[in-house]
Amino acid sequence: RGAVTTMSFDRYGCRVVQKALDAASPDVRVQLGRELRGRVMDCAEHMHGNFVLQRCVEKLPQEALDFIVEELQGQAEHAASHMYACRAVQRLLEHCSHEQLQVLVARILRFVGKLARDAYGNNVLRHLLEHGGVSEKKHIIGAMCSNVVDLAKNRSSSLVVEKCLEVASGGEHATQLEHERAALIQALLGPHSGSGGRSVLQLIMLDKFGNYIVQRAIECSRDAERQTLRKQLLDMEPQLRASATGRHILASMRRQF
């Protein structure tokens, strides 16, 4: 005790602190964790310290995590896009109550577009889609319906779009997200301005990232959507056959249709 902060920033010391948190009694765990008060962001951003902070979130009782949430929430968008701090944010999304995270999540949701395109922020958004409530999921899916061509062609944001389709089609809140699922599918099937009448789907299907979204859309489409989607893909069949990514889409079509 008394050396947790110093040891957390050390390559070997951080492992000792993690072992102590694993082995300690619940009361001692809380005491060890509280030694990080005032240094939570420093710890979250540190290449070794972030592992200690993650272990604190995993091992401390929920009610003892308030100080961690409070120190991160004012800089939530920065933490969410930081190479190491994003991990602590993800652990909080897993282990804290909705009430504890209201301020932190609200701040993340203000920066959905920016975080979706970020190499680390996209992981936080996908985690929020997995662990968040209905309102948070609706907000993120709604944001993905805008400028979907650019989002689909970006390595990071394409993963968020794909996760949106997944949770809206078969996740815990799928029934409540039916409107959002349909809106996202329609955003993919609808025409893209300035593209000569081509749909968003046709613009992204041969893209190295966008093609995965097309494959997911094939799985997640329903009823009349499926017929429209199938027609658009068949119209592009020669181009699809000539491309490795296109052939993956055709294989997905054969499995689903």
The SSE order reads HHHHHHHHHHHHHHHHHHHH
Rounded to the nearest angstrom, the radius of gyration is 22 Å
Stretches where pLDDT falls below 50 for ≥5 residues?
none
Cα shape:
elongated
Number of E-state strands: 0
- Spatial separation of the terminal alpha carbons: 62 Å
Share in helix: over 70%
Approximately how much beta-strand content do the residues carry?
under 5%
For the largest beta-sheet, the strand count, sense and barrel status come to:
none
Overall pLDDT level: 95
By DSSP (H or I, 4+ residues per run), the number of helices equals: 20
Based on secondary structure, the structural category is mainly alpha
Q: What's a concise summary of this model?
A:
70% of the residues lie in helices and 0% in strands. The protein is mostly helical and 257 residues long. The relative contact order is 0.07.
Structure, explained:
The chain is 70% helix and 0% strand. The chain contains 20 helices and no strands. It has helices at residues 4-8, 13-23, 26-34, 40-45, 49-59, 66-73, 76-80, 85-95, 102-109, 112-116, 121-131, 134-144, 148-152, 155-170, 178-189, 200-204, 210-220, 223-235, 237-241, 244-256. The chain starts with a helix and ends with a helix. The model has no long low-confidence stretch (mean pLDDT 95).
